[in-house]
Amino acid sequence: MSRSSENSFMNYTKVYKETQIETASPVKLIVILYEIIINSIEQAKSYMAEKKYDLVNKELSRAQDGIIELIAALDFERGGDIAKNLYSIYLFCSRRLFEGNIEKNPQMLDEVKNILSNLKEAWEKISTMVSEETTIQSQSTKEPTKSIDIEG
């Protein structure tokens, strides 16, 4: 691929991702955030194997920022015990990422990745249910089509 083709592809990818985020529902945004965090953890593990520790730090910092965003998105009033439990899980994950970075331990990163992958799957199911519910609601609120009786 030529340099200009590569740049065009990268620009297209960036615009696509930005559009995906800008048009996403709040639930879908949570799923996207999980994907970003999980990808950062995977990238950090790859850099860890290559002993590129400055890049490990960068990726794990990005993952930690994502976890902070997940914490900020929690609604403790409406979320009740679920929000409290997610808060505890997110704090645990943040601590394990920190420890995994300090100890350069990919197993700790895998532990967090597995937890977040399971949560992502649950949010994907919620996203699908919300999307289906929205579709049903929009179909039921549409005005009935008017027709003309041509039989007499």
Q: Can you walk me through this structure?
A:
- With 152 residues, this protein is an all-alpha fold.
- It has a single domain (16-122), classed as Flagellar protein FliS (Four Helix Bundle (Hemerythrin (Met), subunit A)).
- It is built from 5 helices and no strands.
- It has helices at 3-22, 26-49, 53-73, 76-103, 106-140.
- The longest helix is centred in the C-terminal third of the chain and has 35 residues, at 106-140.
- The protein is flat.
- Residues 146-150 have low confidence and may be disordered.
Number of DSSP helices? 5
Q: What proportion strand?
A: under 5%
Supply the CATH superfamily name. Flagellar protein FliS
Distance between the termini: 67 Å
Helix content, binned percent: over 70%
Q: Quick check: average pLDDT?
A: 84
- Biggest pleated sheet: none
Principal-axes geometry comes out as flat
Overall CATH class: Mainly Alpha
Instruction: Return the CATH architecture.
Output: Up-down Bundle
Query: What are the segments in which pLDDT stays under 50 over at least 5 consecutive residues?
Result: 146-150
List the helices and strands and how they pair.
Blueprint: H1 3-22, H2 26-49, H3 53-73, H4 76-103, H5 106-140
Helix pairs in contact: 2-3, 2-5, 3-4, 4-5
Q: Can you describe this structure in just a few lines?
A:
This protein has a single domain, classed as Four Helix Bundle (Hemerythrin (Met), subunit A), CATH 1.20.120. 84% of the residues lie in helices and 0% in strands.
